[in-house]
Amino acid sequence: MIKPALSATPAQAAVLIALLASAPAAAGPKEELIAAVDRLNAARSYRSVMSADTGLTVETQFVAPDRLLVRMGQLGERVVIGSTMYETSAGNTRKTPMPGNWATTMHSRTKLLGSEAGLSVTLLGSQTVDGQPIRLYRADNTQPRMSATFWIGAHGYPLQVKTTLTTAKDKSYTSTVRYSRYNDPGLRIEPPAMPAPKR
């Protein structure tokens, strides 16, 4: 009877160790949530509606690479096209320059998650909303002091984010953002009509 060899040569052991070291680590809740936020930031377009506990509601539409529409109810509307912003309020529109890197700043991980150094993430579980499978994550951070719940759809994009921020004076503010129309080619943003210059 031939007995199988249970030992490996030093060379074989070295190869096995190298293979194990190079194998990608299994993604945990933190890596999964960061991937979902990165997917949002890389979307070609989306719509969001933010409701704050202060009573403010803001609708935002974004079309890559640099078109943005923000509706703030009675506070007016803003449209950004590249490095130009159009502000409309009380029927009047004015045109002002916009920093060229605004889209990059807007679509950073820090915007939704805070500093990765102080970030901890827990998978809360799964549920079904309107027939869609959803994964729930809780993110807590110390930089800044915040706690957020993320609803992530089967497509890997955030569907809703509820965030509570706590200030240095221990005042807390909560907002809920709902996302839709990811990568919708029908989402278009055009500059508003400007009044003819006076002669």
Structure report:
There is one protein chain. The protein is an alpha+beta fold. It contains 4 helices and 11 strands, in the order H-H-E-E-E-E-E-E-H-H-E-E-E-E-E. It has an 11-stranded antiparallel β-sheet with strand order 6-5-4-3-2-1-11-10-9-8-7. A hairpin with a 2-residue loop joins strand 4 and strand 5. The relative contact order is 0.17.
Q: Gist?
A:
The protein is of the alpha+beta class and 199 residues long. It is built from four helices and eleven strands. Strand 5 (84-89) and strand 6 form a beta hairpin.
Determine the oligomeric state from the structure: single chain
| Radius of gyration computed on alpha carbons | 24 Å
Largest sheet: 11 strands, antiparallel
Share of helix, binned: 10-25%
Quote the beta fraction. 35-45%
Q: Total number of β-strand segments?
A: 11
Order of strands across the biggest sheet?
6-5-4-3-2-1-11-10-9-8-7
| H/E topology pattern | HHEEEEEEHHEEEEE
State the low-pLDDT regions, or none: 1-7
Number of helix segments?
4
User: Overall mean pLDDT score?
Assistant: 87
Structural class, from helix and strand content?
alpha+beta
N-to-C terminal Cα separation, in Å?
A: 105 Å
What is the overall shape? globular
